[in-house]
């Protein structure tokens, strides 16, 4: 197949040739027909190459989407395993404290019971002899018998309490062993999940490189970015249409009165500012890119309802929150999503963890504010 640049040159040459006087073209009719045939073949080759390139771009984009979602799932599972490990370790620590308390109580009860039995053994026979010999005072005999019955019952209670302590101690020891097994299994799961996460990140790098290779020049990258913006615009239009049809259950007052009052959605320096050049000077940034670290919490800037939580081409794992009165906040390029459509969120509540999904190749949080579908400078709301 002839290289695209050479084919383009051939096409230009052909057009120039046909712009020459008719007499020259007539004299060279056979040559012109031959060149026409060559150009038709060249055009066909260019069309085939363009179709192959578009297919390659689509496949690379699809691969990134699949890997982004798989990586988000692996990261979520790893975080859940770490939470379970922390809970299991806390339970183990508490069980060991209870175990020590029961051992201390057991020893105390044993000493107390031993002292009572020893005292009863030494004095028991003499007291019974005195009772038998002292028959002239029935009231005293009755009182003494009641006293001995009380002592015997107290000893029985102490024995039962000791037995209960021993049973509780046995149960705690069994729970400790079960927890240790659970901890071991969770640690193994964590190792496997970490390995899976590393593997997926490597796959993500390869897929990103493939995508970059498919967009070999600025024109193709520009077309891609424009398609991404159009895709986001369609999503926002669909959201706004739905919001107009269905009023939210809670009152949403918008963001109009909150300029310079809200907290940042994530920590980090601004890598790209609103309105700055994107891809030379051919596009502008509709939001800001905050240099948050991978895995950092992304927080809602204000009270609202989640209306979108999914992967979107060019924006990766994206969360959109409706704040009412036509205001939407957008949080893109996330590593994981923590909220679902319909969830209500408060200011400062985590909605995602930051990452580099979507194929941008940069780690951080992409943040936008839109008013009636139009992008606004989000930093105007941040104090």
Question: How would you summarize the topology of this molecule?
Answer:
Blueprint: H1 4-18, H2 22-27, H3 29-133, H4 138-214, H5 218-245, E1 270-272, E2 277-278, E3 283-284, E4 288-290, E5 297-299, E6 304-312, E7 316-324, E8 327-337, E9 344-345, E10 350-354, E11 365-371, E12 374-376
Antiparallel strand pairs: 1-4, 2-3, 4-11, 5-10, 6-7, 6-9, 7-8, 8-10, 8-11, 11-12
Helix pairs in contact: 1-3, 3-4
Characteristic key phrases:
383 residues, alpha+beta, Glucose Permease (Domain IIA), 10-stranded antiparallel sheet, two-stranded antiparallel ribbon, 5 helices, 12 strands, 60% helix, disordered N terminus
How would you briefly describe this protein structure?
By secondary structure, this protein is α+β, with helices and mostly antiparallel strands.
Descriptive overview:
The chain has helices spanning 4-18, 22-27, 29-133, 138-214, 218-245, and strands at 270-272, 277-278, 283-284, 288-290, 297-299, 304-312, 316-324, 327-337, 344-345, 350-354, 365-371, 374-376. With 383 residues, the protein is an alpha+beta fold. The chain has 2 domains: 1-214; 229-381, Glucose Permease (Domain IIA), CATH 2.70.70. The longest helix is centred in the first third of the chain and has 105 residues, at 29-133. It starts with a helix and ends in a 7-residue tail after the last strand.
């Amino acid at each position: 197949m002839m290289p695209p640049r050479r084919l383009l040159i051939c096409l230009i040459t052909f057009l120039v040739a046909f712009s020459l006087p008719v007499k020259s073209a007539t004299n060279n009719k056979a040559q012109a027909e031959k060149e026409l045939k060559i150009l038709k073949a060249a055009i066909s080759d260019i069309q085939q190459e363009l179709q192959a390139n578009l297919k390659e771009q689509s496949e690379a984009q699809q691969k990134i989407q699949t890997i982004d979602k798989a990586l988000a799932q692996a990261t979520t599972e790893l975080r859940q395993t770490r939470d379970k490990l922390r809970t299991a370790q806390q339970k183990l620590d508490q069980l060991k404290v209870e175990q020590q308390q029961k051992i201390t109580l057991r020893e105390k009860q044993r000493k107390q019971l031993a002292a009572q039995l020893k005292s009863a053994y030494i004095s028991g026979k003499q007291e019974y002899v005195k009772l038998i010999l002292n028959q002239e005072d029935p009231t005293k005999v009755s009182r003494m018998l009641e006293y001995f019955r009380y002592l015997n019952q107290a000893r029985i209670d102490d024995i039962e309490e000791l037995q209960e302590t021993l049973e509780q101690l046995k149960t705690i020891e069994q729970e400790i062993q079960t927890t240790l097994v659970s901890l071991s299994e969770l640690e193994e799961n964590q190792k496997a999940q970490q390995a899976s996460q590393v593997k997926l990140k490597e796959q993500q790098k390869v897929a990103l490189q493939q995508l970059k290779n498919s967009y070999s020049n600025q024109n193709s990258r520009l077309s891609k970015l424009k398609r991404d913006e159009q895709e986001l615009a369609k999503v926002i239009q669909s959201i706004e249409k739905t919001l107009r049809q269905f009023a939210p259950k809670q009152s949403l007052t918008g963001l109009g009165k909150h300029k310079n009052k809200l907290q940042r959605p994530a920590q980090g320096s601004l890598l790209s500012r609103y309105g700055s050049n994107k891809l030379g000077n051919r596009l502008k940034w509709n939001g800001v890119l905050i240099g948050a670290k991978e895995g950092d919490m992304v927080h809602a800037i204000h009270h609202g309802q989640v209306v979108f939580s999914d992967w979107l081409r060019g924006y990766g794992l994206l969360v959109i929150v409706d704040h009412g009165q036509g205001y939407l906040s957008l949080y893109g390029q996330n590593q994981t999503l923590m909220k679902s459509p319909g969830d209500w969120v408060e200011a400062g509540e985590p909605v995602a963890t930051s990452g580099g999904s979507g194929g941008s190749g940069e780690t951080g949080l992409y943040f936008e504010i839109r008013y009636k579908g139009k992008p606004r400078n989000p930093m105007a709301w941040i104090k």
